[in-house]
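Quick check before the chapter quiz. The format below is the same one you will see on the exam, so make sure you can read both the input and the output lines.
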Amino acid sequence: MRSTNQKNRYLRAATGAVIVIVVLLFVCIVELFVLAMLNAKLQDKEGPSTDTKAALATSTAGPDDTSGPATNPAYLGPTEDYGQDYIDKIIFVGDSTTYHLVSYTVLSGGRDTKQVWVPIFEENGSKLPTLSLDINIAQVQINYPRTGEKMTIPEAAAREKPEYMVITLGINNGVPCLGEDEFKRCYRKLLDALIAASPDTKIMLQSIFPVSSDYSQKTPSITNEKIDRANVWVTDLALEYEKHGVKFLDTNPILKDSTGCLNAAYSNGDGLHLNKIGYEKVLTFIRTHGYPKS
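Here is the expected output.
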């Protein structure tokens, strides 16, 4: 009889312990649920995290649509085809990736086009068309295509007063050499001078083009990861200067293959510069992601 009573006491004690454990587990689950709800509400109030914002800055709706986040007024989204007349009104400023618009005769006027403003330097007896992103960028001289005179890019802008300007900078000196602060500081030097020289010019900052995987292996200071990072900085600058009408033109994604590198179909073979098909694709994108009409 005593043994039976003892067993019953053990059974009641075990049952009580189980009930206590179940209650504690239930309380923990309720607390976790409440904490999750509070955290979600807090995130809604604070907005996306820094990592999320960085991802949004480079996000696209698809391979041929880089309208960007709806909250970024500097992004140029899809529009009607503005046509060749629109392209003919644009002055293109940049490094060698811009100069090859001349080489491949994809602009009106072909090799005699007056739309490309790229300094040409002499190096070892050869002509080197390029523009480095450095602190003296606003003082570098070009041969002004209308007259052949030597002048700075801002001086040329003051003379011509172009309706539109597309600037493509960063692959030369910027991506391989500069951190974010210096990159932006140098870029601002040119933007400030151009806006002062021709305040009505509608400026579009074009993203830096991708490079091939082979090019990155040969030149590890220039990789698509670094280019993507620098393009976020260009996006930041466009947003910073949006009050002056500056916009961001994100052509980088349409030139990439499935691995995120420059599509071989658009490369001239060196892994850095585009071929004629690549430039024609870029110009078509510009026509169909036009500057907003007033």
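If your answer matched, good. The chain has two domains: 1-47, 74-288.
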